[in-house]
Amino acid sequence: MRKLIDRTRHVAKRLLRRTKRIAERLVHRTTHTARRLLHRTSSASEQPREHVVKPPLPLPLCFMLSHLEDDGPVRIDGVKLGVFEVMGLELDEPKLGAFAGALNALDFPVQLLIRQHPPDLSRMRERLREAEPGDLPPQTRAAADSLRGLLTTLERRDGILDRRFYAVCQSGRADDLRGLLGKAGLSVHPLTGRPLRLFLLASALGGSPADRDEDERVEVTVNRREVRVGGHLTRSLHLGRWPRALAPGFLQGLMAAGAPMDLAIHLGPIPAEQAARTLEWQKVRFESAQSLSLRRGRTMSPEAEIALEDITRLRDEVQRGRERLFHSSLSITLHANDEAALKEMTQRARAHFAATLGKLDVLPFRQRVGMLSTLPIAMNAVAEWRSLDTSSIARLFPFSPPDLDTRSGTLYGIDLRACSPVVYDPWDGTHLNANTAVLARSGSGKSFSTKLGVLRGLTRGITAYVIDPEGEYADMARAAGGRVLSPGVPGQGMNPFVINQGDAEELLLRIGSLRRLIEVMVGERLSAERRAALDHALAGYYAEPRERTGFRDFYAYLQDGEDEVLARLLRPFATGSLRHLLSDEGDDLLTNEALVTVFDLRLLEPELRPAAAMVCTETVWAAAAQNPKPRLLVVDEVWSIMQHPEGAAFMVSMAKRARKHRLGLQFITQDVQDLLSEDTSRAITGHSGRALLQNAAFKLLLQQDAAAISTVGDAFDLPADLQRWLLSCPRGDGLLLARGGRFPVRIEATPEEADVIEWRPGGREGQR
Question: Per-residue pLDDT for 134 more than 90?
Fold first, then answer.
């Protein structure tokens, strides 16, 4: 029996070597045939004819591409392909299950491709330069220039990569592939036209699609262990020995190594009948070997026993339709500028697989076929396969981790997991809204990160307003060419009682906001009768055709006999110590709108700050309603407003309505426990804190306190490892929740930006 097994292995090895030789001959023969076809085409094109052949891509024939049509590339053997870009997803068990379900329904060959290369941020720099206002002060202009310099630095920084995911199949099955990936919960976008052309050039020549010259022609030199493409080197590797068990996230660890690479997975489904017969034959073979060993008084080796258990289990799963078998192949092409870097990358990649008892082969004298296997042409030129079941392939999940790099907007940080820039624009219309919640403990860097976001918004024309209870933003606003207002000081009053009556719906909403504002101003919750009287007074005041100058005019209206009790309650804001809070003596915010306006509330008593904050917020809302454009309203220590029932209702209402006027609401608090509490005995009523968070498309969690981490974890459904990380992450690091994903980010500022943020009159004294 053992001789039979050895002979079978020997025959299998001979067949494998013969298959490799046949595959290589096929590749060379196809290339030779393509040259002849192209020569005939060029000769025939000299004669007039009705049908015009599309010009080939500016690539050597060794890349096996004939030409490009609008909806897909064509290989030199005439096979047309469909190419899709797939958006990344957070890796978890439900997504693995959905992906496994899609694989079970797959009945045609497919190639899954991961490309990661240094990013090209040149277009983003140009857009930032075009969006920069012309009236920036010198210090702010220097900060804007330094941000563009930081983007240039990120392009050359080791470990910063642009990662994209793709799926390739024959064009006739493109719709089927798109449907299967869509059912797995993946967002799939077909590549056509110029983006497809740039992608093919970048895949063949290396780098990101955005930095390719469409007419660039390069020389390709194939060596024994590497291929020189233009000015850089590539080395292709093939997974010759697969690990016995694949854990979820197996590929993510390899991608996190920070090496520029292309990784391709080729899948060819095996018919269920054939798979069942093969597994049954394997089971019988192992059982026969086990029986023979027992007769000779021996026991099976542990490896053989494990293999028999695996085959028996897999056979049963295949027969029940829960699993399928696939011809699988994994190839990697590494990119480097010199041999030393290429050698280091190779060692790291091989060490990653060796840690799981896998082995990467370096493919000596076969670098060309290895490179072809990682091109988006759906061809496994290496011609080596391994049979894998659905569950094993699903654990590879080559569409993670996701990144938040839209190349639109500005830089918000560095993704620590995906090793990519975090770039997005809250006002581009692709998000639910432009609201952001910042939750952190004291001293975690929330003020610095908020100021940095405000400053980078200013440099691209985003008007900002800040409700500042402690005077932390005043110096930054002055350095950035903005203004600082102190509500309650003569000549700096607000005027939220002026309402544009052109929109009846807006008028009704504003009257409701003013009613809640007045309740916060008087410091108590009005009775139902008094609330009804206040609503009647406001409706009557705005219903009459009269010239309205602001709060004092409304106060005079109440004094004229409409409601003397309400007039007495509001007397401190008309003739008392707070008479300068609601007045029209200051500059009109709507007419003289600065790039950044800070409402400094530190001169007011703590019990008066919620009312003043609501006055300022209502004034900004009036500006947004009259002239919708991208604006940012920052409310620091939002808990001071939320602890009042009417203030909480006001903030939730504004968070829901802000997007209608292109207003982004950013609220900050270190009282995380109070904001997320569901205890109805607290001052805040209902679940307004959680409702406010639900209406924020972006949530930034910086370092958290141990007493609040369980509440934060439950509120945002954070796994235990992320909760532990939030307890000990350095200052400036945090977790950004957006688009259904979790992105660990690092806030990074340039020295010029830090100078503006930490500026003090008479010298720089601030500390980050």
Answer: no
